[in-house]
UniProtKB/TrEMBL annotation:
The keyword Repeat does not apply. PANTHER family: FARNESYL DIPHOSPHATE SYNTHASE. This is Polyprenyl synthetase family protein. GO terms for molecular function: transferase activity.
Length: 308
């Protein structure tokens, strides 16, 4: 077992402490997303930072760093990638909230970006976050990540965030609102809108630590099952969740007549599917042959048992 992994095992904080530690670590770096020497319009900077620093547990960066550490890698080497995936995720939320998309007024208990800065600035801030994410990934080369690994991460991010990934899932979601008749259509949406960035986060973090192709494949399967379980849990929470904890209105899917897993198969069957997918994810993780997979296992259990 690599020396760094031994250190993690002997000095392991509890999961909640670890999550907060990572959120703070990544959040501090995200404040510096635009180098101070760059000349950038003030309104654009403020709009980008408004959504980027709006809170949350930094779940996707958490997966990046936990995957890197599971292979004995360092947080420092994986940090640029962790920041990049949070920028991609944030851009997607800014655009999803727009009137032409989900038309939401609040995100994490705060007014959505376009409600504060206007639609045009929200669109441009999202564009800026996405393109800045690619620049940020390349910064990993400056902290010891081999150039070929950085190139692979850039290629993966283009795929998982693009038309074959998250954007394609969003389009399928919009089209599905016109009438969805098969659960396979909903699964496609959840896999691409949510699970693809989970897979990217895990494999990108692993690449910074020198993962083998076999390990990357196992982590993709872990991320796919975990991401789908996570999104089904979101569907469940929209039905039974606490608005104060969620930071948004519940029953919004029902009011919008949006098709979800509980709509298709009912609440109990949806909960059972979350459990099945979680066990499948943990089985894939066991096959990854990581130096230390305990933290990723803890994260998987936490995500599907969460109440917000």
């Amino acid at each position: 077992m690599p020396q760094k992994a031994v250190a993690v095992l002997t000095n392991r904080p509890d999961l909640q402490t670890y999550i907060q530690e990572i959120a703070t670590y990544v959040g501090d770096q995200l404040k510096l997303v635009l180098p101070i020497e760059w000349s950038v319009p003030v309104n654009l900077q403020e709009s980008m930072q408004y959504s980027l620093m709006a809170g949350g547990k930094r779940l996707r960066p958490l997966l990046v760093l936990a995957a890197a550490e599971a292979l004995g890698g360092s947080r420092e080497a994986a940090l640029p990638v962790a920041c990049a995936v949070e920028m991609v995720h944030t851009y997607s939320l800014v655009h999803d909230d727009l009137p032409a998309m989900d038309n939401d007024d609040y995100r994490r208990g705060k007014l959505t970006n376009h409600k504060v800065y206007g639609e045009a600035m929200a669109i441009l801030a999202g564009d800026a976050l996405l393109t800045q994410a690619f620049y940020t990934v390349t910064e990993a080369a400056k902290v010891g990540v081999p150039a070929e690994a950085v190139l692979a991460i850039v290629s993966d991010m283009s795929e998982y965030a693009g038309p074959r990934g998250m954007v394609g899932g969003q389009v399928a979601d919009m089209e599905g609102e016109q009438g969805m008749t098969e659960i396979a259509q909903l699964e496609y949406i959840h896999l691409h809108k949510t699970a693809d960035l989970f897979m990217f986060s895990l494999t990108a973090g692993a690449r910074t630590a020198g993962a083998t192709e076999e390990q990357l494949d196992a982590l993709r399967r872990f991320g796919s099952d975990l991401g789908l379980a996570f999104q089904i849990q979101d569907d469940i929470l929209d039905v039974i969740g606490d608005e104060a904890l969620l930071g948004k209105k519940t029953q919004s899917d029902i009011k919008a007549e949006k098709v979800t897993y509980p709509f298709f198969i009912g609440l109990e069957a949806s909960q059972a599917e979350v459990e099945r997918l979680t066990e499948s994810a943990k089985k894939a993780l066991a096959e990854a042959n990581l130096a230390d997979s305990q933290r990723l296992t803890e994260i998987a259990d936490y995500l599907v048992k969460r109440d917000h």
